[in-house]
User: Fold these one by one.
Assistant:
Number 1:
Amino acid sequence: MTTIAPRVFSGVQPTGNLHLGNYLGAIRRFVPLQDQYDCLYCVVDLHAITVWQDPAELARNIREVTAAYLASGIDPRRSIVFNQSQVSAHAELAWIFNCVARLGWLNRMTQFKEKAGKDRENVSVGLYDYPVLMAADILAYRATHVPVGEDQKQHLELTRDIAQKFNVDFGPRIAELGLGDAFFPLAEPLIQGPAPRVMSLRDGSKKMSKSDPSDNSRITLTDDADAISSKIRKAKTDSEALPSEVAGLDGRPEAENLVTIFAALSGIERADVLKDFGGGNFSTFKSALADLAVAKMGPIGAEMKRLMADEAHIDGVLRDGAERANAIAEPVMRDVKAIVGFIGSR
């Protein structure tokens, strides 16, 4: 197998109302990877339009995700920060991969079934084809590692299947062009320990979501200190005291959620949280959690608002990132086109 330099690719959809779950489950985890890998962090706006978006709102949301990246500690000088639609390789490679992937593979994608629900005939082709575009996102840069959550693991397996089939189908041509014995790497999931599963503050059995009609169900990244504190103090709980051991959280989803959030924000285990607060009432615990959340999330929200007020700066970061991303993707696409047999590409 040809050696390919380690490279990380990941992205976040610009669909508005970024919340604490997005931060703890994805964005915060991107930051330390900059110390180990060359990283590309993408605002995946092509994925966003698999469902209808208001154009003005989409533009705002692209800038919001960019601001969240920067405010959380992603350095655009060390990592490449860009929006997907500025790099044509994503769409070009997705079409080539559409001709490599097989219908049966896509039919097995459980996330499409969940998102489409009972109205499958009326959703966009893009929503169905989403995993092929995700494969193109990763492989346009020949990325070797992808930080993924549970809901994306199946899509990464599809990416590996597409890469493997391309390498096999075009193996002789790859060798003929002197490109080694395999062109695309089989990207590996990057596991940094289990991401905290952040649930709704109003219903501990449901994930914290951008689409929940109640704003009190989530802490958004742009909430100020008063909003963060108020939402935590109003969070649903039960009538019992906090347990002293993790096992005591079983069957108590709201208590488990708040303890999980405290542990994630403070960087300690849930057992240690319960050592300090077990046996106490929720009002005392919520007060401590509110203070912690304000201390951790308040500066990020303030910095996001400062950045979003300077659209020219945000757009400059994205433009520079797109140029750097293109510099990596364009040679890859020239080779892909030559491998496939398109003339005039090399």
Number 2:
Amino acid sequence: MIDGHGDDIYRYEDMVKLNFSSNVYQYADHSALKEYLMEHFDVINNYPEPQPRRLEKLIALHHGISSEGVMVTNGVTEAIYLIARLFHNSASIIPQPTFNEYADACRSCHHLISYENSDDLTELPKDRVYWICNPNNPSGNVLMKGFVDYVVRRSPRYTFVVDQSYEAYTKEKLLEPREMQELPNLFVLHSFSKTYAIPGLRLGYITAHPNTIRLLRGLYHPWAVNAMAIEAGIFLLQHGRPAIPDLEAYLDETERLRKMLRQIEGIRVFETKTNYMLCEIDKSTAAELKAYLIHQHGILIRDCSNFYGLSNHFFRVTTQFPDGNDKLVEAIKMYQENKGGV
């Protein structure tokens, strides 16, 4: 795992007043889930199912597909590493910038990796794995559903891994498992962690052709998903709602924040279709800005310099409530006006 991956709030103890560094929605109402888990707390007294088939059946019912085409994993990260193992010693195409874990997993399984930024594609083997983060992290851009569908169906020799972890964070139409499950060259990744804002429970799943899932199960070690996470998944599918209560209003606030940041001299802000956005600062580094914001204002942002292809001027922020967003904008304005540093 790359150092600096994800939300690093743990580094700052009680300093953080506003956390813009994590893409996961932070204001979800988990009261009903907590009550349910406390009522079922005794599940920790026994081993969970070796493979969480009860939860897989509920997921299949939710999507209207066969349960043989669903595989629950210990977060989407485990799914990424399992797929990389399945295609060990293969060639992988990973367009950049994107989630670092794809490249980490592929390197650990001896893949020949192309970042699709040179002529090396012509030198790669014909059998390839394409890794597509959609919505993409850290940029927030979304590929059209029709485009992804067309590419996958027109390229049966290639394998496509489409990570839709942030599918609940965009209004754009994405791949539907019931429409794609007959394709043996496609894996679609889904995240309970993001959809229901429970990243600490580590719960994700793969939808794919049943024969492909069968191959993956041969690499799966028993009891990978803990009993409490399984119970949480069952409850959320039966009674839960996505973490964001009003996605349209939340994305409207995202656009408001983006426009305010764009008005700050020396800050470039990229378009986004999600709740997070990629930014670039001139005449300073993201690390310097991050240090200033946390020490002077208690605001945490994501330094994106460890994303392949991005310089040390890039950072990412995720929309909070309006008053918090206003504080972020004012703090960055102060930094740019004074180049305050720490």
Number 3:
Amino acid sequence: MKQFGIFILLLLLAASCSRQQQQLTPPWQADDDSTTVFDLPQIEQAGEMIALTLSGPDTYYDYHGSHLGAQYLLAEQFAAYLGVRLRIELCRDTSELLSRIQTGDADLIALRLTVDSLTPGWMVGKGKEELQAALDEWYKPDMLAQVQQKERQMLTKPRVSRRVHAPMLRRGVISYYDELFKRYSRGIGWDWRLLAAQCYQESTFDPEAESWAGARGLMQIMPKTADHLGLPREQITDPEQNIAAATRLLHELERDFNYIHDRTERQNMVLASYNGGISHIQDAMRLAQRDQRNPQRWEDVRTYVLRLKDPHYYQDTLVKHGYMRGTETADYVDRIRARYQQYIRQVRQ
């Protein structure tokens, strides 16, 4: 019986030692699966390829609700070749690119890191031999030039296909849609003539106008924006529904700038955001404030909207959304304001 008790004691001690040894083993080592590689089969199964790049005119940038940049367009084509979605993630610099690809945060770097006529010069993540093989098989030396030409064509042709109407229908009447402008501008407290001036800038009062990026209707609403605003896509070219949705968007944007007390300045920021994206306008405002300019005054912010095409500015740590083709946005606000003044002189409130 005594021997049996000693035997039980030894078993308990062994179990205790085993538990202690398990506790001393770090949890991240307990189920070590470091041999698993997320290669092409796993990418295809997930249905998504993650690419890292930098913001810039030749790499990736937002443009009127679309994404452009030769490296982005090339990566988009490669993802389509693989039959998966593309997810682009921006990095601050090449050091961040290399660090993230080495830690397996992404599948490849969509940036020309090496000059090689046989490949796009991208870096594929470690251990992704099948992805690298697919890239080598897909890529042809003339592909980069082709996407660059495609992008130039998109940027040089008219952004919106529309029938051009006169900015005034007849004396005292701006357009066929004046009653709609009056009705829906009241809900946001805007002068209806300012809304009419914006509409002319967007579509020249053509309800069937469509941009190459997919924006449609009098106020050029993108399909995804229509979804957000509760506008059924099949009604996107309906004049009343389009104007009503646009005023809902203007109201949302105005709430984002409610700390700007001057109504004219606030409306200028809203108009700029409607065209160029609120994130870019906020980047320009941060730069203006840093340089001791007035971030609530459009003329000061406009200066930095124009400067966001310069690497010195769009690569600044204050800038969260990178490169911007700011000339169009500055011109957009200028033209609307000039036409609005014309409407004030010619049409009664």
